[in-house]
Amino acid sequence: MPDEKPLGEFELIERLTRGLPKGRGVILGPGDDAAVVRPSDGMDLVITTDSVVEGRHYRRDGCDTERGKRGLADAVGRRLAAANLSDVAAMAAVPRWAVLSIGATSGDLEWTSNIERGVAAGLGQDGAALVGGNLSRVEGPEWFSLTLVGEVERDRSWSRRGARAGDLIAVTGVPGFAGAIERHLNEYWAEVQGHGVLGLPGLEARDFSAWTAPPSRVAAARAMWRTGAVRAAIDLSDGFAGDLAHLCEASGVGAEIDAARPEGALAAIAEMEFGGDARRSGVATPETVFEALRFGPSDDYELLLAVDPAKREACAAAARASATPLAFVGRFTAEAGALMRIRADGSRSPLPGRGYDHFAAAE
Amino acid sequence: MPDEKPLGEFELIERLTRGLPKGRGVILGPGDDAAVVRPSDGMDLVITTDSVVEGRHYRRDGCDTERGKRGLADAVGRRLAAANLSDVAAMAAVPRWAVLSIGATSGDLEWTSNIERGVAAGLGQDGAALVGGNLSRVEGPEWFSLTLVGEVERDRSWSRRGARAGDLIAVTGVPGFAGAIERHLNEYWAEVQGHGVLGLPGLEARDFSAWTAPPSRVAAARAMWRTGAVRAAIDLSDGFAGDLAHLCEASGVGAEIDAARPEGALAAIAEMEFGGDARRSGVATPETVFEALRFGPSDDYELLLAVDPAKREACAAAARASATPLAFVGRFTAEAGALMRIRADGSRSPLPGRGYDHFAAAE
User: Fold this and answer.
1) Å from B72 to nearest chain A CA?
2) Is the four-CA dihedral B234, A134, A138, B191 of positive or negative sign?
3) Distance between first and last Cα of chain A
4) Which of A184, A320, A341, A362 is least enclosed by beta carbons within 10 angstroms?
5) B18 contacts: CB under 8 Å, gap ≥ 6
6) CB A9 within 8 Å of CB B359
7) Of A236, A355, A237, A337, which Cα lies nearest the Cα of A296?
8) Using CB atoms, which residue from B28, B49, B133 is nearest to A133?
9) Distance from CA of A103 to the nearest CA of B (A)
10) Distance CA A268, CA A257 (A)
11) Is B146 helix (H, G, I), strand (E, B) or coil?
């Protein structure tokens, strides 16, 4: 007989945690007052936490089919895992154990557990495991807060400090792509739900995986870490220009970014948008739209690195071996705090774009 | 010049984390992609997470003076720390490093940072430190989610499993007191705010510290752990009967609780409440009201322990040496799942009370 009562907290937790894979080094998983895990000898721990909030990071009302809702829940979970994995990768650490704190609105167990499964799946791809959590009821937007613990060899973690003037600026993946895709997510979800309206020129459904299931850079980070080429690192979660500024501030340096020719799917989006309002505004060009997307607010969960120029090739080879695109896009300068873009003709101008700020962004 | 703009996320984080005490073993504190900490050799880690949600765990609108708001924010923070410290104590671990994830509604920096300071102060009393966090903006009830990592000697942590029939049931402090006090918090806050309406018979302002600043049981737990007397443990965060049931289920045992004579401040509250609706109902007695408070929903952050009868005195002495009240209130039985109360005349009846369930409790 199906139980007509709404699920209680303890049953909900039991169902949510049932069948979670037991991770490496997990002595005692969910269900006690705390999880017990065993760290490896000779390692430091890195600890990071990130959250997603309904209405700010995703909207539930955008999906009206079961397939769409499942896909969205999975993406929300995977992105939350990716946000934390990316922080751990930016420290050159190996992700291990996570706990998930949930503020849920009601007994929509399917939705909540699909998000949790997305989190667990995202973590699992890098060998990390959910070992515990907490469930509170909220009257209002639901939220999911994930804390991830990783391990890194003692005194060997990367940080935002350490970039020197002359170091190369390298980035993984396509910075700005997640933010650009976010502008067209409605069309994507319509397609997922079978309404068949995608077919954005130059954009394929698989491109959206940069948003729905961001690739992990943990393996690439560890491979590059082994080369000793990287002097500082930050993950791109606010946007290229914003996060570059954070790293420059922590390291006391400036940066100059080489002009890039618009290409690939990001260029396709820029061209598409140029064809709309931007063209009508009369001041934009495909290149300026491309740069606004590339350097502006975007949570890509990619890595931005300061690379010792003498070890550029070793670093590039490590990224290649991890099947991770790595581009050298500029260099750090002694001009502390100055973020410049250099065109092919040698002219310099301030780098466009700024990071996403939860509290500055007006509704 | 004061900045008229609302504080941005990064400035808010910077201000929130400024001046936090650097904890033991902290290699890199707030401000990077993740914190870096150094675990001690030969230790396991325990990881727990808990949250507080506006409107569910506290109400902001109850305070109309600056003094009242400051007191409430401090209490909210200290209780969140206590919830996590209590979980760590229940594993016999030493609390070390914590990260705080915040969903804040607006730029009321004073309120938010007072809560964070309450968290840091609560953690600091046990030698633990905030090493990082995350800030999201929410449109709706604000929330604070804390994750705490502790250390315990390998394979030596307590858990809910391990209680045997015949083991003594011991509890620290006064179970039920936090829940009972919660029923009279409005009067307390009125007093704090200078409206001078406290003077509840038998209840003093300092009694409310069980709610506003729950005492930590970490030191007592470690002292009792050293005696080897404790076979299983759980922290009281849902209520005596509910948490006892969790421990019994995990250990596959039952429990019988000796009838206790109502005494102390909890008895005073029971007597006061008996004088009201309970007396009018005609079925309650001061004793039944006392037991409903004692065994019912209450987040006391006290410890419930299964104690080896042969080591009762060593356990009691360890608690005394830690200035922690410890009462032996019954024993575990072989009757799995049965929670009974035994009266002085030897009669047995089911233990009243049940734990707090976020999702079963209707508004």
Assistant:
1) 20
2) positive
3) 47
4) A362
5) none
6) yes
7) A355
8) B49
9) 8
10) 21
11) strand
Distance from CA of B100 to the nearest CA of A (A): 8
The number of residues in chain B equals 363
What does A178-229 look like in DSSP terms, one character per residue? HHHHHTTHHHHHHHHTT------TT--GGGGHHHHSPPP-HHHHHHHHHHT-
Complex prediction ipTM = 0.91
Element (H, E) at A87: helix A66-89
Q: Coil, strand, or helix at residue B259?
A: coil
Contact B35 A53 (CB under 8 A): no
| A100: nearest CA partner in chain B | B49
Rounded to a whole number, what is the distance in Å from the CA of B57 to chain A's nearest CA?
10
The mean pLDDT of B319-335, rounded to a whole number, is 97
The percentage of residues in chain B with a pLDDT greater than 70, rounded to a whole number, is: 87
Tell me, what DSSP letter sits at residue B58?
B
Closest partner residue to A107 (CB to CB) among B137, B149, B359 is: B359
CB contact under 8 A, A33 and B48: yes
The answer to whether B170 touches B158, Cβ cutoff 8 Å, is: no
> Which residues from A are below 8 Å from B143, CB to CB?
103, 136, 138, 143
Counting as low any pLDDT under 70, the low residues of chain A are: 1-21, 107, 196-202, 276-283, 354-363
Asked if residue B236 lies in contact with residue B294, where contact means CB atoms within 8 angstroms, the answer is no
The C-alpha atoms of residue A31 and residue A351 are separated, in whole angstroms, by 50
A27 contacts B44? CB cut-off 8 A:
yes
Element (H, E) at B169: strand B168-172
Structure tokens at B304: 């419930």
What is the C-alpha to C-alpha distance for residues B146 and B84, in angstroms, rounded to an integer? 7
Which chain B residues are closer than 8 Å to A160 by Cβ? 31-33
- Using left for φ > 0, alpha for ψ between -120 and 50, and beta otherwise, residue A98 falls in beta
The structure tokens listed for B221 are: 């737990």
pTM, to two decimals: 0.92
